[in-house]
């Protein structure tokens, strides 16, 4: 039996705070087999295709929005969500690249080869070029397409850039995290470069402008120069609220009473981002877009608790497959929604936006077979049942195998040492090492890390490799039912086996020193020739093996410091 060390919080206190407000439903074995995502839904009854604004925030925790009971002020997000549809059964991926790739392609990461980690700045890797992207489909439907913000889907050759993947314009960063003012990014000691781009050029002249403001201003400029009579798609991928923790002083001052410095800065960044969303909404109204617009808001993964984020009362954090890593903040705001001002518990995943938005745009999905997403607009707008009944969170064969996992523990059909997670109906299964598993109330963040004693900690999970939860009845993953329901475990393992048979090989090539910004004028950017690209794409594993043999002592030392920095700062995943 699991032993929990609970300090300062009890089930009674959780009830008093209203955290156990999910409906408790009778468990069932598994849901019905999912419907075909390509199954046609009736077209939306709009007079013309709507303008689509997709807002993605970075590392914003589940608890870090006002309507989830946060101590952080987000009046704009609260109002937009209250007037639209809140998605409270909405799932994303636990880290940056996977969420972005699944949004852009409508496919699970096992079907794009990006099932392991993120795309590193020096890797010859990017979103597979054979994938037809969401903005490309919207372009086909007559949309003007624009991206503002963080790309993080690879850039080693020009064909990987946003402007080559369906966006008419782009202003933003290509790597995973940059300074909010200087736009510098270091991928290890001494490997630093500038990363702000306008189209395919380096935007040196924009240095010094706070990125959250810069990106909101660019959206307003795009709207001002475009005609509301023509459909437009704007993908706003804020850098906020990823580390480094930087914010204008006037926003930090609002949270001067917060004892924890990281939480204080983080809160300021969230509120600043909220005001940027307010300015974007105001621009939609000012320039005549709002009445025929759809605004989608989504986080990209769970909050990083080391850096001020909070996923309370969910378990885990960014980078894990616990609910704190994969359950996202999401809502849709639009005058076109038929049933507004409500909360939806329809099961929705980030892959669903691809077919949903293409359908709203009256685009053609018949030539993109194999999508993992579903058109969920009828569920959002009309309150109909979601066509989705299961989610493959991921299967990562390269992640460190769990010490105590085995094929025997997986009924001879699945090696439970492999990191994987799936939800089917009300049930969620995790195998391997799901990642850091504590519950961290936001109150304990004061004087971090001295308050670690205040955490609710699971003390016997280290020898496990299989967990089963009824997420509907137990959204906080406190009661592992794997021993009581081996029948459900076996059924969900069979679903993992099914998905694994459809997976393509992992794309995770070794880093290449030629990517160093010093060879590109001091900026991060494309660095591979066509011949290089063909060689690397045709033989990733041999390259990886060769590089391992050639590693020098200084390379190993740099790798050590990079991993140490990752563990300390938790901003490299």
Alpha-beta content class: alpha/beta
Contiguous uncertain segments of 5+ residues: 1-34, 448-454, 538-573
Q: Strand order across the biggest sheet? A: 10-9-6-5-11-2-12-13-3-14
Overall structural domain count: 2
* Tally of separate helices: 14
CATH class of the largest domain: Alpha Beta
Instruction: Report the helical percentage.
Output: 25-40%
Would you tell me which CATH topology of the largest domain applies? Alkaline Phosphatase, subunit A
**CATH architecture descriptor name of the largest domain:** 3-Layer(aba) Sandwich
Any idea what the shape is? globular
Distance between the termini: 33 Å
CATH superfamily descriptor of the largest domain: Alkaline Phosphatase, subunit A
**Biggest sheet, open or closed, and with what strands and sense?**
10 strands, mixed
Task: Count the E strands.
Answer: 20
Overall pLDDT, averaged? 87
- Please state the CA-atom Rg, rounded to the nearest Å: 23 Å
The proportion of residues in beta strands is 5-15%
Label this structure with key terms.
single chain, 573 residues, alpha/beta, Alkaline Phosphatase, subunit A, Arylsulfatase, C-terminal domain, 10-stranded mixed β-sheet, 4-stranded antiparallel β-sheet, 26% helix, disordered N terminus
Task: Outline the structure in words.
The chain has 573 residues and is α/β, with parallel strands linked by helices. The chain folds into two domains: 51-388, Alkaline Phosphatase, subunit A; 408-502, Arylsulfatase, C-terminal domain. The protein is 26% helix and 14% strand. The strands form five sheets. It has a ten-stranded mixed sheet, with helices on both faces. Strand 9 (197-198) and strand 10 form a beta hairpin. Helix 5 packs parallel to helix 7 (261-286). The longest helix is centred in the middle third of the chain and has 26 residues, at 261-286.
């Amino acid at each position: 039996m699991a032993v929990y060390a609970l300090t300062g919080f009890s089930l009674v206190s959780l009830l008093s705070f209203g955290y156990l407000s999910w409906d408790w439903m009778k468990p069932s074995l598994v849901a019905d087999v999912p419907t075909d995502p390509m199954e046609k839904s009736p077209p939306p009854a709009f007079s013309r295709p709507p303008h689509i604004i997709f807002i993605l925030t970075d590392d914003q925790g589940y608890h870090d929005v006002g309507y989830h009971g946060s101590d952080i002020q987000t009046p704009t997000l609260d109002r937009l969500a209250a007037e639209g549809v809140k998605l409270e059964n909405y799932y994303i991926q636990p880290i940056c690249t996977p969420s972005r790739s699944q949004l852009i392609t409508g496919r699970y990461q096992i079907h794009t080869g990006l099932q392991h980690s993120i795309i590193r700045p020096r890797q010859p890797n990017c979103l597979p070029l054979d994938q037809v992207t969401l903005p490309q489909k919207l372009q086909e439907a007559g949309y003007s397409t624009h991206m503002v913000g963080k790309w993080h889907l690879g850039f080693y050759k020009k064909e990987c850039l946003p402007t080559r993947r369906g966006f008419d314009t782009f202003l933003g960063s290509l790597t995973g995290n940059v300074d909010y003012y200087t736009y510098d990014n270091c991928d290890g000691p001494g490997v630093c470069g500038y990363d702000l781009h306008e189209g395919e050029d380096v935007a040196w002249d924009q240095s010094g402008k706070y990125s959250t403001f810069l990106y909101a201003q660019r959206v307003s400029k795009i709207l001002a120069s475009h005609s509301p009579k023509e459909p437009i798609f704007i993908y706003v991928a804020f850098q906020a609220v990823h580390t480094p923790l930087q914010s204008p002083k006037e926003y930090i001052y609002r949270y001067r009473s917060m004892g924890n410095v990281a939480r204080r800065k983080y809160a300021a960044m969230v509120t600043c981002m909220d005001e940027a969303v307010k300015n974007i909404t105001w621009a939609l109204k000012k320039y005549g877009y709002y009445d025929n617009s759809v605004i989608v808001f989504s986080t990209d993964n769970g909050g990083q608790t080391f850096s001020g984020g909070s996923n309370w009362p969910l378990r885990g954090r960014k980078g894990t497959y616990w609910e704190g890593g994969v359950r996202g903040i999401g809502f849709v705001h639009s005058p076109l929604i038929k049933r507004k001002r409500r909360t939806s518990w329809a099961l929705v995943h980030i892959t669903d936006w691809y077919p949903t938005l293409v359908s709203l745009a009256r685009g053609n999905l018949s030539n993109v077979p194999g999508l993992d997403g579903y058109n969920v607009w009828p569920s959002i707008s009309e309150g109909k049942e979601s066509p989705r009944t299961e989610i493959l969170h991921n299967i990562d064969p390269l992640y460190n195998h769990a010490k105590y996992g085995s094929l025997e523990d997986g009924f001879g059909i699945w090696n439970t040492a492999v990191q994987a997670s799936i939800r089917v109906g009300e049930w969620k299964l995790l195998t391997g090492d799901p990642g850091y598993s504590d519950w961290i109330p936001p109150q304990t963040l004061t004087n971090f890390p001295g308050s670690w004693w205040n955490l609710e900690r699971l003390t016997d999970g280290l020898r496990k490799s299989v967990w089963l939860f009824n997420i509907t009845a137990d959204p906080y993953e406190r009661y592992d039912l794997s021993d009581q329901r081996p029948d459900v475990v076996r059924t969900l393992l069979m679903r993992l086996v099914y998905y694994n048979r459809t997976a393509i090989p992992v794309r995770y090539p070794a880093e290449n020193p030629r990517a160093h910004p010093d060879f590109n004028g001091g900026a991060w950017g494309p660095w591979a020739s066509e011949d290089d690209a063909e060689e690397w794409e045709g033989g990733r594993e041999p390259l990886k093996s060769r590089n391992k043999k050639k590693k020098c002592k200084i390379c190993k030392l740099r790798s050590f410091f990079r991993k140490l920095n990752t563990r300390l700062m938790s901003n490299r995943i």
